[in-house]
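Example S7 (structure tokens).
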């Protein structure tokens, strides 16, 4: 009977064990995880800070792994992998107890950790005014302080940084967002689409500073000031939301190859060490568009990758085709969605991209309830192949981007997308959908 050990119980760890059980119901599966609870939904943390989710406990789930006949070693941190002996050493950091767990196949699902930029004072004040939004405990502390009021600075304008900025603003705080790059959500949005989102943030009373460098965090016993581009700003709260970094250390010490952004895996999610697989936020995979190295820390991506890893670790055969990069975030009253490559990133990869962009209404102007939506579709001028899309609006952004994600996965061209039949009802959509209009604009530029 095969024994499969999984390190980490997030979206990837859970998906891996489910896939492994379906593939080989006789397999012995053991999970090693350092949390005191089972599964946690980190994407919900900013909304719990805001109060939309009224309890952080709702983001925690007990899975009853014993009933599923899955072993669960917790709270233990996997400390060392010995591929030659086929075992993992795990340690309980509270008691110092160590365990050696044997495996036939191993799945690393160690996720990612919050990146703390090398800003003077930032690390020093963690717990004394500097917060991350990575665990329910951290986020609950942030919410409690935020409800008192005052001023806050969010370092980073990615999804977590912006969602948290809105949450703090709705708690009654004065909020500044500082982003080193030229626009908000710089990995996902081109400057023109980012400007729509930035304008919305500013309409909520949030100050957005792009192309801004945080020089220092100042205070005595707690945070009192933040220096941005040489100017002091009063602040009692600083949120470190400058992204995450893959947890690759245990894989690297086991001899697995790691790239710039994660553990290197093949199409079976297998590492360069026999018998060891990896999935989720800790891995470097490839873009489905062209096979170039790519990583994206999203639950949807982690789940898809781990399903492959769990299947293969249990003796099955499955292949992960690559990441399309589809994501959506709710920021204030806007949905912000994107997939694939931005226009700017496509250029850096050597493409000659074209794009079509439209600002339109989700419904006809004669039907009540329509909302404005901005859509941008990016394609390769030479082949016409769709490379990406971005959408911002009060509704409908995710559904359009999901269509483009499917088109990317199918290798569709602009012309093929233009002929898609999308559902129509005046209470739901326009007959000539804004997405298809953007595609047709791109076709005209391509010609």
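Recovered sequence:
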């Amino acid at each position: 009977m095969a024994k499969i050990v999984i390190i980490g119980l997030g979206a990837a760890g859970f998906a891996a064990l489910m896939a492994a059980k379906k593939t080989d119901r006789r397999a012995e599966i053991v999970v090693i995880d350092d949390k005191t609870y089972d599964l946690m939904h980190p994407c919900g943390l900013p909304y719990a800070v805001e109060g939309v989710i009224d309890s952080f406990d709702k983001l925690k789930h007990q899975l009853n792994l014993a009933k599923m006949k899955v072993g669960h070693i917790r709270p233990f941190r996997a400390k060392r992998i010995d591929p030659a002996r086929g075992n993992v050493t795990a340690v309980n950091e509270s008691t110092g107890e160590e365990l050696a767990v044997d495996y036939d196949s191993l799945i690393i699902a160690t996720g990612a950790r919050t990146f703390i930029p090398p800003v003077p004072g930032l690390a020093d004040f963690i717990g004394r005014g500097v917060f991350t939004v990575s665990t329910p405990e951290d986020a609950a502390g942030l919410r409690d302080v935020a409800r008192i009021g005052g001023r806050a600075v969010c370092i980073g304008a990615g999804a977590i940084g912006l969602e948290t900025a809105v949450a703090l603003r709705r708690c009654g705080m004065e909020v500044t967002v500082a982003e080193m790059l030229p626009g908000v959500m710089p990995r996902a949005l081109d400057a023109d689409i980012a400007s729509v989102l930035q304008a919305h943030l500013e309409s909520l009373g949030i100050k957005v500073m792009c192309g801004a460098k945080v020089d220092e965090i100042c205070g005595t016993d707690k945070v009192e000031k933040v220096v941005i581009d040489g100017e002091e700003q009063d602040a009692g709260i600083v949120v470190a939301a400058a992204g995450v970094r893959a947890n690759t250390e245990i894989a690297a010490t086991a001899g697995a190859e790691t790239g710039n952004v994660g553990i290197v895996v093949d199409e079976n999610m297998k590492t360069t060490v026999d018998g060891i697989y990896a999935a989720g936020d800790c891995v470097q995979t490839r873009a489905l568009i062209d096979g170039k190295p790519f990583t994206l820390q999203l639950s949807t991506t982690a789940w898809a990758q781990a399903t492959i890893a769990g299947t293969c670790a249990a003796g099955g055969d499955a292949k992960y085709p690559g990441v399309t990069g589809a994501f959506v975030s709710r920021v204030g009253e806007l949905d912000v969605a994107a997939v694939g490559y931005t226009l700017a990133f496509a250029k850096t990869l050597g493409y000659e991209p074209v794009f079509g962009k439209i600002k339109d209404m989700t419904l006809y102007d004669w039907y009540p309830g329509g909302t404005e939506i901005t859509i941008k579709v990016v394609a390769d001028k030479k082949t016409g192949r769709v490379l990406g899309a971005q959408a911002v609006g009060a509704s409908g952004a995710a559904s359009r981007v999901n269509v483009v994600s499917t088109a990317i996965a199918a290798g569709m061209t602009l012309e093929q997308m233009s002929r898609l039949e999308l559902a129509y009802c005046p209470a739901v959509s326009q007959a000539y959908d804004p997405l298809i209009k953007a595609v047709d604009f791109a076709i005209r530029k391509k010609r």
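Notes on this example. Residues 299-313 form the longest helix (15 residues).
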